[in-house]
Design brief:
This protein has 10 helices and 9 strands. It is of the alpha/beta class. It has a single domain, classed as Alpha-Beta Barrel (TIM Barrel). Strand 2, helix 3 and strand 3 form a beta-alpha-beta unit. The protein starts with a helix and ends with a helix.
Length: 217
């Protein structure tokens, strides 16, 4: 049984949460296999994916030893409860809903609510969030992350939105605990084409960039 601390440490060690979206279960699962092969073993299945709950359940059943599975776009407590029951080890939201945070905490899972302003970030942290998702990060840029860490140095931030190979290192150097990476890693065109090798290559590039950025800090 994976503990909450184990989950959190896995996210921090990996440095990337691969945000997976798709039109059906089969390509989503194949995309996950591809990025895991490239070194990204933390995956967020969003509830914008058809059949997301069943995908989470299948992944948790078949891949729990090698892949950390979480649920994304969790907007209410009921969805959080269902995701956790299906096997999600962490709960991600684009917004700050206290009920979602409390539900994850009460069930011993990592809570990653979304925030943007300093007020929202501080409120999320005080609720007990383990990490705070800065979304949409591309609106503000890496410099904003560094500015947030000035008055809020204790908060572990996960910028998400617009993260790609060209700016990933900048966000790490600005103080990101990890990065939420969606389309620039799990590219929908590559998924549609079944180009799993290209997805694996992208995952490898992201992991190498994060490793080098951390080593240089």
């Amino acid at each position: 049984m994976r503990t909450k601390q184990d989950t959190l440490q896995t996210i921090l060690d990996c440095g990337i949460i691969a945000v997976v979206r798709g039109e059906s279960a089969d390509p989503v699962i194949k995309a996950i296999d591809a990025v895991v092969e490239g070194g990204v073993n933390v995956v967020e299945v969003t509830f914008t994916v058809p059949g997301a709950l069943e995908i989470i359940r299948q992944l948790a059943r078949d891949l729990a030893r090698t892949v950390l599975i979480g649920a994304g776009t969790v907007l209410d407590a009921e969805t959080a409860r269902n995701a956790i029951a299906a096997g999600a080890q962490f709960i991600v939201a684009p917004n700050l809903n206290p009920d979602v945070v409390r539900t994850a905490i009460a069930r011993g899972k990592v809570a990653i609510p979304g925030a943007l302003s300093p007020t929202e970030v501080a409120a999320a942290w005080h609720l007990g969030a383990d990490l705070v998702k800065i979304f949409p990060a591309n609106v503000m840029g890496p410099g904003y992350l560094k500015d947030l860490h000035g008055p809020l140095p204790e908060v572990s931030l996960v910028p998400t939105g617009g993260i790609d190979l060209s700016n990933a290192a900048d966000y790490i150097k600005a103080g990101a605990a990890a990065l939420g990476v969606g389309s620039s890693l799990v590219d929908k065109d590559l998924v549609a084409a079944g180009d799993w090798e290209a997805l694996t290559d992208r995952a490898q590039k992201f992991t190498e960039i994060i490793k080098k950025a951390r080593e240089g800090m």
